Automatic annotation (TrEMBL):
This is Immunoglobulin superfamily member 1. SUPFAM superfamilies: Immunoglobulin. PROSITE patterns: IG_LIKE. The gene is IGSF1. The lineage of its organism: Eukaryota, Metazoa, Chordata, Craniata, Vertebrata. Residues 1322-1332 have a biased composition (Polar residues). It comes from Piliocolobus tephrosceles. Residues 1311-1334 are annotated as: Disordered. InterPro entries: Ig-like_dom, Ig-like_dom_sf, Ig-like_fold, Ig-like_Receptors_ImmuneReg, Ig_sub, Ig_sub2.
């Protein structure tokens, strides 16, 4: 969009400069952070005649630089490279003459280029002061009552500044500042303050020597007329490329109307002069950059303006922002209760519609005019029919092409009792030695309280608000089965169903040498006791049976003693092996402390922060419950923080003497309190908080960074060294902390350092100096080698091992996280080689990220700190996008920039390459994107790249990884492949899609058609293929096509065309016929010919196969027929074939398809199918028809019946009638067929089919079952008879002995019965004698 009168544009912008700044302040908009300009000024050693010797100074506002550039009249350049990096340099001009008069500006070098130039310094002829420059600065809200600062820069120091207003002879204000700039304040702006202002300077000692007047500045006060109305047509939300009309309407005719976008007031300023009381601002083709807040006003010929219109938010997007739906009081509702569904989204002025899954029409509507912060969808007296998944979408009353994205959903559950939650254990369900387990009870909706039950103990019950329960395993009392339930706030007396039970077991853990040693000793003792017990029992048994002598018992005792000795030696061997430290390095498990919170201050008065100060405390741990702010030992408890932000605010308001003191905060978790944050010290009511300075131990000859933490954002920083009055280094606003760099640490750099902060705008307000930091270079061991065994970019729950090693022997190691010691490993004297320590994090949590380092020491001598390893825990923030500029295909030797676009500002970005263990590059930026430069790439740089971003102040919590981006380093694009779907032979009027596919992502494709000068379509792809749809195909679409890559950047890489695709359109000529010779079925290895017979001469024939996208073969015969010869056919040649033809005079205008011909390449035809009608069971007097069906025509079928050698029936149609006379029809049947052309080749038989009836297999099955059961009964009876016969045979002997012998003989006889047949019984034993005597006794009848 352009201005109506271009010549008036610059004037209008200058005229409304003050108004624009006031508008920005009144709307609460923050100023757009631009790249800081350097400052240019003049110094001279001739104060009364500065033109006699001039030196120009150029100062960088925010960082030291290695190069500075001075420009004169935009053509002449002078640059200086100082001996070391600095923040200001001087350019000697000397005496001012006609030749060196002109317009001067300066720049400084910052990666990757020069900064913006300074303001223009105009040096005129000798004898004149430089012309001052004039601009404004807004401090407080505008309109009548707005405070305005007018700044006048005079380039020289010790000047008198005069402010003049048009119509007044005398100056309205004057100042004598100490610097080169004066600030004139106009408080409580009124219409009387309107007018044209200029600024002039003169030397104090020479009041007659004046500078030229500055450029005039016209000051206009808005709000003298009523405010207009601003509306959008057709609507405030449009897609890119669509047109939009913004209508500004006021009550007065003949005014000039102005429209502006708040986000870019200086550049997006449009005005129109009209005779009506309204003006239309037309946007022909909207862009994404046009999104913003718009307002308008009108003014008269004297530039008296109206009040501002209400702000109108314009959205230009191709996809609607996501809406969020929240159920109040809970998504789980009891029958008959009321529930409100609150839908919110970032788009204002648009209606909302509530949808339920499964229903096409919206359930409820909300008009745009009725939507406010308290408006919701209401469901009253809910029933089971209201159960379902709900979502809400924007409701538009105008047409647009914006896509509706997927929205979050809320599952509404109407229950009598709330549903059961889920119960999980962290880090696992198995106890480790000395470790506790956290049970997590979770449900997707808000909960009042959770309860944990232990099934083994009925009286056990624990309660928790967040659902986390810590279970310890003291004396093994933590193992068992647990479950949990909950209750919601709306129904506190109703508990939910219990979760699924979860069983905890233990103890177990990772096997260390100490654990293995203890277990081995315990097991060996158990084995000894068991062995001793077995020996004692064996000796006792042998003594009773054999009455062995004492000598044998002594030998046995010696054996047992030897067993004990051998076992003891084995235990010693195991112990010695465990003490050999050179075999295995023990892993030290890291017990993470509760992470330290971060404390900072915020204010809405950047020039005077003490007017309203708020302290914020934030924790990196997601399980933080509350925060405590301590001041000199007295604390205030904050409310519970939000679950996502995990922070709390402590408003202090305007600072008074009662607020002075030292502040720090703690974060409270369920079972622990964190370490205190760094102390924030407030010293007075008009003094900035005292900063904190820190640094790592200095090392001779190496770079050292000093960190100055200033607590407030937007402050400048200055570094001081004891003994020097001026700052050693100065840095501009870089967040809440700054890093000063000493490039090479030497003895001269030793000393006490301190830092101060100050407001960014002059006049500066300074803080007190920090506590001094002494830098002393000490003798140290060289730094250790420190790394992780895997990538330092990990997901939650991953296992991380840090390896810290040094070639020195017998060293102890310390592991640090963010400068604090968290673990240690003592020295080992047994190992003769290098020292090393492994620090293990078994399961990484979201708060375990950070900067890790290690050191080693030996008595009083420490090593240098290792290089830090940044451990980043991902999957906390949304994933970024990674793009290649100019493109993903790079010529060898060229450079490519990979831009990683994140969601949040002030993050640190990392670039990763697939296959690399550590990230390739890191960048900390103030915006939300980072550019990674791959310089002079080669073939080894090809591969998949991804990126992440993470916050450095909160445990390196990172984002998900971006989608991988493939970078190709080549001098020639790979050749793409062009094919048609479903086929390149398409009937008239059908649709076809031409696919151009290649391996490169993010590159467009272009489709060419032969004999056409221009390409058909251009397709910008984000995947690896491009689709070119052709709908309702006609004769104009047929022809030869090809495609190629179409990069949207300039490149010298060669582009190769794809294969040529012939698109044939059928249905324009009579169809041909297709025959197979010798037949449609052949054996593998034989030859076949397919004959396509057309109806017109001079034709080209095309052979097609179903499922194949391209034609198999084309022929141009001399007659009406084409023979397609297929030698040595194989199984994959089977299929359905057809053919078409087209005339040479009209290529690609083909005939209809021939009738399909199915070809079989097999030794045996495929088996047929066999079915019975009406069923497989015979009924009285009814027949059954068996139907045999095959896949080939012209065949003869045969039916076979199991048990009969010869086939029963033959049939050409496959139908066989079966009757059941005398039960002969029942049984199993199968069928097969043979081709009439090949009577000797039979197909495989079909699956068998069984026919049953009254005299069929059912009766036979019953008879067989009876026979089996009868046989089992007979076997059992015979077995019982044999047992009884044997027992009866023994019984008379026992009975006789019982009647004839005394009690002693009865006992012997019973003993003989029990020991009969026992081998090894001596002949003279008592039992033998008894047996001999008892046999001789008479047996009475």
């Amino acid at each position: 969009m352009t201005l109506d009168r271009p010549g008036e544009g610059a004037t209008m912008l200058k005229t409304f400069t003050v108004l624009l700044f006031c508008i920005r302040m009144s709307l609460g908009m923050t100023l757009i952070v631009m790249d800081p300009q350097p400052e240019l000024w003049i110094e001279s050693n001739y104060p009364q005649a500065p033109w006699e010797n001039i030196t120009l100074w150029c100062r960088s506002p925010s960082q030291i630089s290695s190069k500075f550039l001075l420009l004169k009249d935009k053509t002449q350049m002078t640059w200086i490279r100082p001996s070391r990096k600095t923040f200001q340099v001087s350019f000697l001009i000397g005496a001012l003459t006609e030749s060196n008069a002109g317009l001067y500006r300066c720049c400084y070098w910052k990666e990757p280029g020069w900064s913006k130039p300074s303001k223009v310094l105009e040096l005129e002829a000798p004898g004149q002061l430089p012309k001052p420059i004039f601009w404004i600065q807004a401090e407080t809200p505008p309109l009548p009552g707005c405070n305005v600062n007018i700044l006048c820069h005079g380039w020289l120091q010790d000047l008198v500044f005069m402010l003049f207003k048009e119509g007044y002879a005398e100056p309205v204000d004057y100042q004598v500042p100490t610097g080169t700039m004066a600030i004139f304040s106009i408080d409580n702006l009124t219409p009387e303050d309107e007018g044209v202002y200029i600024c002039r300077t003169h030397i104090q000692m020479l009041p007659t020597l004046w500078s030229e007047p500055s450029n005039p500045l016209k000051l206009v006060v808005a709000g003298l007329y009523p405010k207009p109305t601003l509306t959008a047509h057709p609507g405030p939300i449009m897609a890119p490329g669509e047109s939009l009309n913004l209508r500004c309407q006021g009550p007065i005719y003949g005014m000039t109307f102005a429209l502006m976008r708040v986000e870019d007031l200086e550049k997006s300023f449009y005005h129109k002069k009209t005779i009506k009381n309204e003006a239309y601002f037309f946007f022909q083709s909207l862009k994404i950059q046009d999104t913003g807040h718009y307002l308008c006003f009108y003014y008269d010929a004297s530039y008296r303006g109206s009040l501002l219109s209400d702000v109108l938010k314009i959205w230009v997007t191709d996809t609607f922002p996501k809406t969020w739906l929240l159920a109040r009081p809970s998504p789980v509702v009891q029958m008959g209760q009321n529930v409100s569904l609150r839908c919110r989204g970032p788009v204002d002025g648009v209606g909302l519609a509530l949808y339920k899954k499964g229903e096409d029409k919206p359930v409820q509507f909300l008009d745009a005019t009725s939507i406010d912060d308290n408006t919701s969808f209401f469901l009253n007296n809910v029933t089971y029919s209201d159960t379902g998944i709900y979502s809400c979408q924007y409701l538009l009353t105008w047409k647009t092409s914006i896509r509706m994205p997927s929205h979050n959903t809320v599952e509404l559950m109407v229950v009598v009792k709330p549903p059961k939650p889920s119960l999980s254990a962290w880090p696992s369900t198995v106890f480790k030695l000395g470790k506790a387990i956290t049970l997590r009870c979770r449900i997707s909706h808000p909960v009042l309280e959770f309860s944990l039950e232990w099934e083994e103990r009925g009286t056990f019950q624990k309660f928790s608000v967040d659902g986390d329960f810590i279970i310890s395993n003291v004396d093994g009392k933590g193992t068992g089965t647990y479950s949990c339930s909950y209750r919601v706030e709306t129904h506190p007396n109703i508990w939910s169903h219990r979760s699924e039970p979860l069983k905890l077991m233990g103890p177990a853990g990772y096997l260390t040498w100490n654990y293995v040693l203890n277990e081995a000793i315990r097991l060996s003792l158990i084995v000894q006791l068991v062995a001793l017990l077995l020996v004692v029992l064996w000796i006792r048994w042998k003594c009773r049976r054999l009455r062995i002598r004492e000598a044998w018992l002594l030998g046995t005792a010696q054996g047992v003693t030897m067993l004990f000795i051998v076992t003891a030696l084995l235990c010693c061997a195991i112990s010695f092996a465990g003490l050999c430290n050179g075999v295995l390095i023990e892993e030290t498990e890291i017990v993470m402390p509760t992470p330290k919170p971060e404390l900072w201050a915020e204010t809405n008065f950047p020039l005077a922060p003490w007017k309203n100060l708020t302290l914020w405390c934030r924790s990196p741990s997601g399980s933080t419950k509350e925060f405590v702010l301590l001041k000199d030992g007295t604390g205030w408890i904050a409310t519970r923080p939000a679950s996502e932000q995990v922070r709390a605010a402590f408003p202090l308001g305007a600072l008074t003497q009662s607020h002075t003191g030292s502040y720090h905060c703690h974060s409270w978790e369920e079972m622990a309190v964190s370490e205190p944050s760094e102390a924030l010290e407030l010293l007075g009511t008009d003094i900035l908080p005292k900063p904190v300075i820190s640094a790592s131990p200095p090392i001779r000859g190496q770079e050292l960074q000093l960190r100055c933490k200033g607590w407030l954002a937007g402050m400048g920083f200055a570094l001081y060294k004891e003994g020097q009055q001026e700052p050693v280094q100065q840095l501009g606003a870089v967040g809440r902390e700054a890093f000063f760099t000493i490039q090479r640490m030497e003895d001269k750099d030793e000393g006490n350092y301190s830092c101060r902060t100050h407001t960014e705008q002059r006049p500066f307000k300074w803080s007190e100096p920090s506590e001094p930091l002494e830098l002393v270079i000490k003798e140290m061991y060289p730094k250790p080698f420190f790394k992780t065994w895997a990538s330092p970019v990990v997901t939650p729950g991953a296992r991380v091992t840090f390896n810290c090693s040094t070639p020195h022997q017998h060293m102890s190691f310390i592991l640090y996280k963010d400068g604090s010691e968290i673990a240690s490993s003592d020295r080992s004297w047994a190992s003769p080689g290098a020292s090393a320590a492994h620090f293990l994090i078994i399961s990484v949590g979201i708060g375990d990220g950070g900067n890790y380092s290690c050191r080693y020491y030996d008595f009083s001598i420490w090593s240098e700190p290792s290089d830090p390893v940044e451990l980043v825990v991902t999957e906390f923030y949304p994933k970024p996008t990674l793009l290649a500029q100019p493109g993903p295909v790079v010529f060898p030797g060229k450079s490519v920039t990979l831009r990683c676009q994140g969601t949040f500002q002030g993050m640190r970005f990392a670039l990763l390459q697939e296959g690399a263990q550590v990230p390739l590059q890191f960048q900390s930026v103030s915006g939300n994107s980072a550019d990674f430069l791959l310089h002079t790439v080669g073939a080894e740089d090809s591969g998949n790249y991804s990126c992440i971003y993470y916050e450095t102040t909160m445990s390196n919590r990172g984002s998900y990884l971006s989608i991988p981006l493939m970078i190709w380093v080549t001098d020639t694009f790979p050749k793409p492949w062009l094919f048609a779907e479903p086929s390149s032979v398409v009937p008239m009027g059908q649709n076809v899609t031409l696919w151009c596919r290649g391996p490169i992502h993010g590159v467009g494709y272009i489709l060419h058609k032969e004999e056409e000068a221009t390409s058909m379509q251009l397709w910008g792809s984000t995947s690896n293929d491009g689709a070119f749809p052709i709908t309702n195909i006609s004769g104009a679409s047929m022809g030869r096509y090809s495609c190629c890559y179409h990069p949207d950047w300039t490149s010298s890489i060669k582009i190769q065309p794809s294969n040529t695709l012939e698109l044939i359109v059928t249905g324009l000529l009579p169809k041909p016929s297709l025959l197979a010779q010798p037949g449609p079925m052949v054996s593998p290895g034989e030859n076949m010919t397919l004959q396509c017979q057309g109806q017109l001469p001079d034709s080209t024939f095309v052979l097609l196969k179903e499922g194949t996208q391209e034609p198999l073969e084309q022929q141009r015969p001399s007659g009406y027929r084409a023979d397609f010869w297929m030698p040595a056919v194989r199984g994959e040649d089977s299929g359905i074939y057809s053919c078409v033809y087209y005339l040479d005079s009209a290529p690609f205008a083909a005939s209809n398809h021939s009738d399909s011909l199915e070809i079989w390449v097999t030794d045996k035809p495929p088996k047929p199918s066999l079915s019975a009608w009406p069923g497989t069971m015979f009924k009285l007097g009814k027949d059954i028809i068996l139907q045999c069906r095959g896949p080939l025509p012209g065949v003869e079928f045969v039916l076979e019946h199991d048990g009969e050698e010869a086939p029963q029936q033959f049939s050409e149609d496959g139908d066989f009638v079966i009757n059941n006379v005398e039960g002969k029809g029942i049984g199993n049947y199968s069928c097969s067929y043979r081709l009439q052309a090949y009577p000797d080749i039979w197909s495989e038989p079909s699956d068998s089919l069984e026919l049953v009836g009254a005299a069929g297999p059912v009766a036979q099955e019953c008879t067989v079952g009876n026979i089996v059961r009868s046989s089992l009964i007979v076997v059992v009876v015979v077995a019982l008879g044999v047992v009884l016969a044997i027992e009866w045979k023994k019984w008379p002997r026992l009975r006789t002995r019982g009647s004839e012998t005394d009690g002693r003989d009865q006992t012997i006889a019973l003993e003989e019965c029990n020991q009969e047949g026992e081998p090894g019984t001596p002949a003279n034993s008592p039992s033998s004698t008894s047996r001999r005597i008892s046999v001789e006794l008479p047996v009475p009848i």
